């Protein structure tokens, strides 16, 4: 029985990790997976834990960008070097873009956890994700890092806030918003995942007490660890794969997938 439970949580971690970077909604698929495996995980502590594993994967993949931005941002603050102004601005815009989701998370986390975790909601919102991805499937954009504005950052941030709803992909919503306002694909992808870092850290801080006081932690410690490792490994390779997909401009495959998955979930939930 323990081995079967460990396998279920490992599969949950792999499932969440693989779907976190790609625009198909990891939170929605986590709801689907829990129903398939017959698990009912209360609260947000487990989701925050596996999201933190995905965060570590993002840090590994974008470590060179993070080092460059950190160094450039500090040099600009110290010396006002025009050469590093774009790095400083990019960091500021990442912070600005994080604010809408941070505020929405504080205000609506409990409501989302209690009211929007059902299969019917996930099925419907997966179809919304599919439509959004289809609308930007052929866009290429023209704006690079140095051309991002405060308005752009706020719009992308609002996309991330909407993605708190299970079934609305976080990466999908932010990339759709970024490409919709003219960002290049590579810039949209980088901005999307770098803004995942502060929102994920913020979620970890806000939910740390719930995670530490999780009444099931003693009995589920090993399953949680296995899910964490599974999410970390799957997120890393999934993000690498998605970067190649974005470079080839094949977002429509995710749109079709969301149509199929959303329709199947709706049929299952309504029958």
TrEMBL record:
UniProt keyword annotations, A-Z: Antibiotic resistance, Cell membrane, Cell shape, Cell wall biogenesis/degradation, Hydrolase, Membrane, Peptidoglycan synthesis, Transmembrane, Transmembrane helix
Any single Pfam family the record assigns to this protein: BacA
A Gene Ontology cellular-component term: plasma membrane
EC number of the protein: 3.6.1.27
Transmembrane segments: 44-62, 88-112, 118-136, 188-208, 220-239, 251-270
Superkingdom of origin organism: Bacteria
Signal peptide limits: none
Bilayer topology term: Multi-pass membrane protein
Catalytic activity: di-trans,octa-cis-undecaprenyl diphosphate + H2O = di-trans,octa-cis-undecaprenyl phosphate + phosphate + H(+)
Enzyme class: hydrolase
Compartments it resides in: Cell membrane
One GO MF term attached to the UniProt entry: undecaprenyl-diphosphatase activity
Main location: membrane
One BP term from GO: response to antibiotic
Family: Belongs to the UppP family.
Role played: Catalyzes the dephosphorylation of undecaprenyl diphosphate (UPP). Confers resistance to bacitracin.
Other facts noted in the record for this chain: Bacitracin is thought to be involved in the inhibition of peptidoglycan synthesis by sequestering undecaprenyl diphosphate, thereby reducing the pool of lipid carrier available.
Protein name: Undecaprenyl-diphosphatase
Originating organism: Paenibacillus sambharensis
Underlying gene: uppP
């Amino acid at each position: 029985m323990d081995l079967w439970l460990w396998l279920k949580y490992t599969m949950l971690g792999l499932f969440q990790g693989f779907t976190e970077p790609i625009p198909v909604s990891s939170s929605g698929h986590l709801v689907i997976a829990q129903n398939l495996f017959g698990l009912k995980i209360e609260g947000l502590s487990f989701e925050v834990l596996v999201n933190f594993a995905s965060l570590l994967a993002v840090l590994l993949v974008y470590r060179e960008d993070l080092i460059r931005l950190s160094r450039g941002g500090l040099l600009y603050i110290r010396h006002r070097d025009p050469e590093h102004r774009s790095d400083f601005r990019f960091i500021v815009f990442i912070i600005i873009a994080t604010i809408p989701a941070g505020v929405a998370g504080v205000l609506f986390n409990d409501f989302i956890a209690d009211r929007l975790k059902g299969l019917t909601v996930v099925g419907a919102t997966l179809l919304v994700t599919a439509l959004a991805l289809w609308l930007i499937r052929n866009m290429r954009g023209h704006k690079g890092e140095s051309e991002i504005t405060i308005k752009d950052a706020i719009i992308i941030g609002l996309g991330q806030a909407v993605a708190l709803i299970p079934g609305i992909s976080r990466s999908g919503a932010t990339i759709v918003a970024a490409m919709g306002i003219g960002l290049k694909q590579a810039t949209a992808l980088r901005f999307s995942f770098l803004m995942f870092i502060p929102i994920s850290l913020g979620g970890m801080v806000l939910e740390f007490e719930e995670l530490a006081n999780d009444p099931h932690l003693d009995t589920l410690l090993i399953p949680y660890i296995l899910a964490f490792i599974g999410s970390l490994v799957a997120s890393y390779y999934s993000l690498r794969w998605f970067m190649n997909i974005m470079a080839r401009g094949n977002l429509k495959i995710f749109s079709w997938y969301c149509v199929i998955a959303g329709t199947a979930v709706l049929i299952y939930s309504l029958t």
